[in-house]
Amino acid sequence: MKQMTLPQVVVNAADQYGDAIAIQEPHQQFTFNELNALRVKSCQSFIAAGVEKGDRVAIWAPNIAEWVIAAIGLQSAGGILVPINTRMKGREAAFAINHSGAKLLCTVNSFLGVNYPQMLADQDMPLLERVILLPEPEPNRSDTHQASRHVMLWASFLSLAKKISPAVAEHRAASVLPTDIMDIMFTSGTTGQPKAVMCAHGQNIQCFTSWGKLRGIYTGDNCLLLAPFFHSMGYKAGWLAGLIHGMKILPILSFDLTKVLAQIEQDKITILDGAPAVFQSILAHPDRADYDLTSLRSAGTGGAPVPISLVKKMQKELGFEQIGTGYGLTETCGYVTGCGPNDSATIVATTSGRAIPDVEVKCIALDGTPVPVGEPGEICVRGYNLMQGYFNNPAAT
Fold first, then answer.
1. Contact 270/223 with Cβ under 8 angstroms?
2. Quick one: DSSP state of residue 123?
3. What is the distance in angstroms between the CA of the first residue and the CA of the last residue of the chain?
4. Which helix (H) or strand (E) holds 197?
5. How far, in Å, CA of 203 to CA of 183, rounded?
6. Torsion 53-55-61-62 (CA) sign
7. CA 360 to mean position of chain CA atoms
8. In the sheet that 337-338 helps form, which strands lie side by side, from edge to edge?
9. DSSP 296
10. Are strands 326-327 and 354-355 parallel, antiparallel or unpaired?
11. Dist CA 47 CA 73 (whole Å)
12. Residue 48 CA from chain centroid, whole number
């Protein structure tokens, strides 16, 4: 497979899907054409703000369209996206900003009672040059933070685009290679400080091209996106997969089961991914019969045990034609194995599928020899999806 870059993916999406909706929110929506135009404008702004190829830009914000516009703009400028977990506290976010050497931070003033800039106020971040405040997530609410020398509102940031011609932005985007680093994502840090995983454009895009084919994603699918953009599920299997496959994404800010049911009916949702508890909650909802859920076609689940009974109920009572489970980790672009469209409920419930195309998986014992099928061992992965390494940590790599 010929590897691509993120700017090429967005251009191709505009060419193929045009005026179809790419991102839909309650108060705004963007077509694939509009996203590509905003990619160029955002790229111009990041270049004007001093972003060079290889510079890191962090995004610490909930699921809003401007998160995506900022990401595709900075990646088109050759910058490296550093997503930060919105559940982090100031000290943890500052660690990610400092360790990655982020030059700029895109965040929001506040969300669900959390003031992100305030949490960073007492943190020492010597390399961070500027904070860009994305629009408030809740509609009809104005930004309360006043812009300063180091803090800039999103609209003001986009106005920097007039300093750089679109031709310069497109030239920069054309200079991005499939082998260039596309993002730095932090591991969960269960065995110490989180490690910063570097993945390249080409491998990310190849990975989630395969993901979409295995999941049976079609142009025109509507995906209700529950996973956060700072996670591979919301970012790579979310808005990136949407751009690759022509799928509309409808991100939600916070999970409310009744609202989810209403939105499935209203927006004819076809794709829904979530933990087993999400589907168990839908099945157990006392008013489920009041909602038309017949548009649902494909589900992805995992991250916890998946009972066979749940898979069968999802098929019979929720009408899912395809249910997939999978396995991945940050160090493999988020994807290693997955179930296919013809796998039985037993395979879906008791396995994580098979290795994706061009990737190999084996289980080994402590001495490095393969263990028999059914025996526990260490999982080893080989393929194009392996990370480029841990940023500034060759020893751990």
1. yes
2. -
3. 27
4. strand 196-200
5. 11
6. positive
7. 24
8. 326-327, 337-338, 354-355
9. -
10. unpaired
11. 9
12. 26
CA dihedral 149, 99, 77, 389 (to 10 degrees): 180
**Do the beta carbons of residue 325 and residue 308 sit within 8 Å?**
no
Rounded-to-integer distance, Cα 250 and Cα 63, Å: 10
| Encoded amino acid at 52, one letter | E
DSSP state of 236: I
CB count within 10 Å of CB 152 equals 20
| 16: amino acid identity, one letter | Q
Q: Given the DSSP bridges, would you call strands 248-251 and 222-225 parallel, antiparallel or unpaired? A: parallel
Tokens coding 201: 């454009």
SS3 content of the chain, % helix, strand, coil (to 5): 35, 20, 45
Q: Are 215 and 338 in contact (CB under 8 A)?
A: yes
Which tokens sit at 376? 């526990």
**Cβ atoms within 10 A of the Cβ of 46, count?**
31
Angle at 39 (CA atoms; ends 130, 252), nearest 5 degrees: 80
By the 10 Å C-beta count (0-12 exposed, 13-18 middle, 19+ buried), 45 is classed as buried
Instruction: Give the C-alpha separation, 369 to 362, whole Å.
Output: 10
- Torsion 199-207-77-110 (CA) sign: negative
| CB atoms inside a 10 Å sphere around CB 230 | 23
Provide the 3-class DSSP secondary structure of residue 183: strand
pLDDT per residue rounded down to tens, the chain (397 residues): 789 999 999 999 999 999 999 999 999 999 999 999 999 999 999 999 999 999 999 999 999 999 999 999 999 999 999 999 999 999 999 999 999 999 999 999 988 888 999 999 999 999 999 999 999 886 555 445 544 558 999 999 999 999 999 999 999 999 999 999 999 999 987 777 899 999 999 999 999 999 999 999 999 999 999 999 999 999 999 999 999 999 999 999 989 999 999 999 999 999 999 999 999 999 999 999 999 999 999 999 988 889 999 999 999 999 999 999 999 999 999 999 999 888 999 999 999 999 999 999 999 999 999 999 989 999 999 999 999 999 999 999 9
**Angle at CA 200, nearest 5°, toward 48 and 169?**
25
Pairing of strands 298-300, 337-338: unpaired
